[in-house]
Amino acid sequence: MSEIFPGIFESDFYINEMIKLWDEGEKWAKWLDELAKRYNLERKVLDVPCGIGRVSYFLNKLGYEIVGVDISEKMIKMAKNNVPNGRFYRADMRYLKDVLNGEKFDLVINIFNSLGYYSEEDDLEILKSIKEATNKIAVINLDNRDYIIYNKPEVYYTYVHPYLVEDHNYFDPYTSRLKIRRTYMNQKGEIIGSIEYTQRFYSLHEIVNLVKKAGFKILDLVTAYSWKKFEVTDPQITIIAGI
């Protein structure tokens, strides 16, 4: 297993970024609730990876039973605090059966660009693992490679309280992996920490082929948490997949 996980997803820097994006979880939850009604799904969701529970929290508020899986021990602890009546397990997405014991869900969600940290072969194993846990519908959301190529600046800055964050990005066209070096600075401009990682990005045809290879049928292709049909210039691909 890659050492990326303890290096990034156990990082307090990274977790602070997830907290900053907390409100986005409500938008996803509302859209997923609409999807569940469209497809007549039971109100029970597998959120993988669940992170700190930013989608699970709002789905739970809407009356959904939540089961979450994440590889990060810190994030699982936070998810349990955020959704006390949910069930959360620390596990690798490739091996969901090790913690789910054959349990299946009408709705499984894999969102917030959670693929691409391993190899393409490992991503296929993740999708197969999700397929095994899916009774009806899986939602897979990721950033669009074709958008990233033309719109991701080589260097850009964001503010994640209390840090100024500097990102250096390099996209390798031969591997479709984005190499990221992220530096965190205090208000004096002093570097107090950094993380480095690479992530594989997929074009529409690539991820569709991978999802089909995992055994899913493509029911719809939209962008982010909307019902807008996906176009190649959109920043996010959201796949509604059925079995």
Q: What is the gist of this entry?
A:
The protein is an alpha/beta fold. The protein has helices at residues 4-8, 12-20, 24-38, 56-61, 73-82, 97-100, 120-133, 145-151, 204-213; strands at 44-47, 65-70, 87-90, 105-110, 134-143, 155-160, 163-172, 177-185, 191-200, 217-222, 236-242. The longest helix has 15 residues, at 24-38.
Secondary-structure blueprint:
Elements lengths: L3 H5 L3 H9 L3 H15 L5 E4 L8 H6 L3 E6 L2 H10 L4 E4 L6 H4 L4 E6 L9 H14 E10 L1 H7 L3 E6 L2 E10 L4 E9 L5 E10 L3 H10 L3 E6 L13 E7 L1
Parallel strand pairs: 1-2, 1-4, 2-3, 4-5
Antiparallel strand pairs: 5-11, 6-7, 7-8, 8-9, 10-11
Question: Overview of this structure, please?
Answer:
The structure is a single chain. The chain has 243 residues and is an alpha/beta fold. The protein has two domains: 4-144 and 202-242, Vaccinia Virus protein VP39 (Rossmann fold), CATH 3.40.50; 147-199. Helix content is 33%, strand content 32%. The chain has helices at residues 4-8, 12-20, 24-38, 56-61, 73-82, 97-100, 120-133, 145-151, 204-213, and strands spanning 44-47, 65-70, 87-90, 105-110, 134-143, 155-160, 163-172, 177-185, 191-200, 217-222, 236-242. The strands form two sheets. The chain has a seven-stranded mixed β-sheet with strand order 3-2-1-4-5-11-10, with helices on both faces. Strands 6-7-8-9 form a four-stranded antiparallel β-sheet. Helix 7 (120-133) links the parallel strand 4 and strand 5. It is globular. The two termini are 29 Å apart. The model has no long low-confidence stretch (mean pLDDT 94).
